[in-house]
Amino acid sequence: MKNDIRSIEDIRSLVDTFYGKVRNDATIGPIFNQVIEGRWPEHLQKMYRFWQTVLLGEHTYFGSPFPPHAQLPIDRTHFAIWLNLWHETVNELFNGEKANEAKWRADKMAAMFITKIEYYNNNSAARPLI
Ligand code: HEM
């Protein structure tokens, strides 16, 4: 029986397993690796803080999630792969309310990112403020 996401150790295991899959994905892996290069440890630390804040209510992430994505060569097909790997990872490791919330939050954030990216692509003069 799988447990729910309850601690920072759970968040680390979720994030590490997920980005392990992301890095190996033929479509989205190279996009991450090109931008992040040798900064994977920092990126993972940041993502622990992000999900710790979102899921555990422990406010360790102070940032703006969208701007780093604004100029990436990504569209809904990339987000579909990202979300598929995220759902797969959450389901493999956890079960419960927080696990469901992790999937729901990612779905919502991805939808918001896609809306913004498509908007900026169609309005080349506009620049993301936040
Ligand atoms: C195919 C889809 C995605 C790609 C290619 C992508 C890629 C990236 C990259 C390259 C960075 C910047 C890393 C750096 O330079 O340090 C980043 C940061 C981040 N991503 Fe994504 N991402 C994707 C989807 C998502 C989704 C769906 C979420 C939310 C659930 C998300 C949340 C974040 C957050 C919170 C950061 C840190 C922002 C900050 O600097 O404070 N990403 N992502």
UniProtKB/TrEMBL annotation:
Q: Keyword check for Magnesium, yes or no.
A: no
**Alphabetized UniProt keyword annotations:** Heme, Iron, Metal-binding, Transport
Recorded superkingdom:
Bacteria
Q: What InterPro entries does the annotation carry? A: Globin-like_sf, Globin/Proto, Hemoglobin_trunc
Q: What is this protein called?
A: Group III truncated hemoglobin
Which species expresses this protein natively?
Niabella digestorum
